[in-house]
């Protein structure tokens, strides 16, 4: 797999997560003391790292990163499972440590915010779809 394709994928992941973080910030009470813009950029970079880690794990499972060109049901299932595990751990840890809380507008499942729970797999899967679209149009 060409390095440029991986870099493009990570750029797409970053852009989608910046959009997600800024548009969903209203659902949080930020208790970190970090300025909001700085916090959201750091969160987006962390999201890129986590999604990149998930993609690397799937590449190890598939013994090749070529799955990114044609992800299958198994790959999407792994993305969803790994994302849910990572998101759940981060949210439980951060809320219990007082890093942030949810506003009343945040829907929750078992006390975990729905937005962060679905973010990683949503932006990861959409990123793969956008990369596929870009590859088809040869942009």
What brief labels describe this structure?
139 residues; mainly alpha; two-stranded antiparallel sheet; 4 strands; 70% helix; 7% strand; globular
Strand order within the widest beta sheet: 1-2
Helix content, binned percent: 55-70%
| SS content category | mainly alpha
Uncertain ranges: none
Task: Give a quick summary of the entry.
By secondary structure, the chain is mainly alpha-helical. The protein is built from 4 helices and 4 strands.
Question: What can you see in these coordinates?
Answer:
The chain has 139 residues and is mainly alpha-helical. The chain has one domain (3-132). It is built from four helices and four strands; from the N terminus they run αβααβββα. It has helices spanning 3-24, 36-62, 73-96, 114-137, and strands at 28-30, 100-102, 108-109, 112-113. The strands form two sheets. It has a two-stranded antiparallel ribbon. Strands 3-4 form a two-stranded antiparallel sheet. β3 (108-109) and β4 form a beta hairpin. The protein is globular and about 40 Å long.
Sequence-ordered SSE layout with sheet pairings:
Layout: H1 3-24, E1 28-30, H2 36-62, H3 73-96, E2 100-102, E3 108-109, E4 112-113, H4 114-137
Helix pairs in contact: 1-2, 1-4, 2-3, 3-4
